[in-house]
Structures are given as C-alpha cells and as structure tokens.
Amino acid sequence: MTRTVVISGGGSGIGLATARCFAAEGDQVVLAGRRPDVLDEAVRRVPGALAVPADLATAAGARQVARVVAAEFGAVDVLVHSAGGNGGREPEPADLDRTDPVAGAEHDWTLNFRLNALTAVLLTEALRSRLASPGGRVLFLSSIAAYRGSGSAAYAASKAALHPYAFDLARTLGPRGVTVNVVAPGYVESTEFFGEGLSPERHEHLVAETFTGRPGTPGDVAETLHWLASHSAGHITGQVVQVNGGARLGL
Q: ω before 134 within 30° of 0 (cis)?
C-alpha cells in the first residue's frame, strides 16, 4: 500500500537518500525545506515527489506543509526530520562581534536550536493530528555529537534535545499505534554538513574511530530510517539507534 512520507530537509544529503529509498518502494514522498532550487532538483531525482518550500523554523512554515498535506493526502504515514545542520552554511549578521563571547554564544546557540530542534518540533506539532493511527511513524535525526559533545557544543546540545522530545512523543502517541524513534549517525560523508569538506587528516581520524574502516554514507542512514518505518519495526519505539560503524559503543 502506498504511504505518504513527509521528509524535512529532503532536498540533499541524508534527506534526499531517504526520499529515494521510500520512493523506490512506491511511496508518495513530500519534500520540505527552505531552498526551492534544491527541492526542484531533488524532485527530478525522486519519482513522483512533491516539493513544499517552507522555513520549518517558523510556525508559518510548518503550517504551510500541514496545509499541503491536508489538501493533497489527508494523512501522514511517515514523518522524517532530516532538516538541520551546524550553522556553517548560514550567513552571520554583519553586526555580530565575534570578540564578544556572550554575543557569539547567543548567536550560535539560538541558530543551532532553530535549525535542529525547532524545525523538528514545529513540523511534528503541525502534523501530529494527521499521523496515521495506527501505523504512523515519526523519525528524528540526531548525531553522535549528542552523546560525546564533539564539534560545536551548540550543535551537540540541539541534537541531544531531540531525545527527550522523541521519548515523550513515543509515550503519548503509542496508544494511537504511532511509533517514534531517533537515528544518531556518526561521520557521514557526501553531505553538505562539512561545507567544503574535511581535511584529509580529520577524515582519516574519523574513519579510524570506526570498526568498519569507512565513513558512513547517506544510504546507510536512509536504510535504517526506512526499516524503522516498516511493519517489521512496529514494536520498536522510544529508541535511539546509532549508525556509526562502532565509533561509539552502547546506548
């Protein structure tokens, strides 16, 4: 049966790989994100996909996606939160004084929580009543940084904030037959996350942390998300699944 799958940040990287994964199974994919040009290119690569340009860090943007879903499909079977980043692609305000640590912290922490936490929360709340019951799936993308605080502290904290929110949703949506889970990738190459890319030394260090001897790919994460959205994973909820090749062990 064809499902309706809404993917935030579905125009590139892990989000695009996830969209292609679901579309390959015949699902109807809705791609939401801020960049119309990126979404247009993604639509050409994902059979039957529908693009909804929207700033998901705003209530208006989240409601825009909800209106389109309501008008075109009625319900959401799978909601995947792939929008986010570390803020490296965002232009800094011209008046930001980086010599002032308080001003820098205010900017970095506000930006990261908008990109990674607020986008996920607002879109979830906008679509909560439209999640298929039973059988709905809500999936969040966290990060290995949420566990070990690597990289930017603001980024790590904003990803870690998704965990208790997901756990609370799992508890409240469980009686409706909706599962909620989190996937926390480690180092994934071939995405926009690192901007122009890592130095060879940093790349080698991150690969050396794994047991598999390679970086992750967007497809590794996409396949995990796809499985968590399947009937086979119907009794898995309130969990964080790490996809990092062994770079971090345990829960």
A: yes
| Cα–Cα distance measured from residue 219 to residue 221, given in angstroms and rounded to the nearest whole number | 5
Known catalytic residue: 147? no
pTM: 0.94
Please, what are the domains in the chain? 4-243 (3.40.50.720)
Cα–Cα distance list, 129 to 72, 139, 163, 173, 219 (Å): 16, 16, 21, 10, 30
* Residues 136-175 as b or e (16 or more Cβ within 10 Å = b): bbbbbbbbbbbbeebebebbbbbbbbbbebbbebbeebee
Grouped pLDDT means (10 residues each) for the chain, 251 residues? 94 95 97 95 95 97 98 97 83 87 94 97 98 98 92 92 98 98 93 70 92 95 98 98 94 71
